[in-house]
Amino acid sequence: MTDFATPFAAALVTADTGKKFVQKPEKPDQAEFEKKLKAAQEDHDRVRQKLSEVKAKLDLAQAPGKNPLQNELKKRLFELRDKQSAKKNDRGKIEEEIKATDASLKAKIKELNAKKGKIPYKTPEELDNVIKNLEKSVERGDMKLVDERKAQFEISILQKQRKNFRTLDAEQKAIDEGKQKLEDLKAKKKDTDVQKLSDEYEETKEQLEAIQAEQDEA
Predict the structure, then answer these.
(1) Are residues 93 and 184 in the same domain?
(2) Which domain holds residue 169?
(3) Are 124 and 165 spatial neighbours (Cβ–Cβ below 8 Å)?
(4) How confident is the model at residue 45 (pLDDT cuts 50, 70, 90)?
(5) pTM
């Protein structure tokens, strides 16, 4: 007959030795336990992922207007349209100002050139030299009375023309300022925000269309 090593039997066998023997419980397999735990965790994660996917599809399948992201994108789209419209109006005003400034500038340049054409001297310095030479001739006192009076009259005319140069300088300064204003307006017209708004509008529109497509498929 086969003997069974029960705790009671083991105690009897060792009774004559005077030593107490207690059989230890079998040690569990740690590796096997961790393997099963990992498998259970993976199953749990798969279920959670599946639930998340189902929830996402249900959210997308909501009636238009009830999807928070969709509403946010629509709101942003309207905001971008308003900004683009405002930029377009500003751009139109700038273009009108450019045309007006350019026309005024051309008229001033034409008028200035006409005035310069009436003066036989190109620069104030050239005119001053002519006046000085005439004054020296008069001061020498060797001119005939008729020639002296003629020289004095010419000096008077030239001095008036000298004043005209100061007026021409002021007009030239106004023209230079007009040219700078025109350049500033042209630079302002090239607003980089216009392109940025356009790019963002297209990107937002694509996102909105993608959501709508998923809703149609759901």
Answers:
(1) yes
(2) 71-217
(3) yes
(4) confident
(5) 0.48
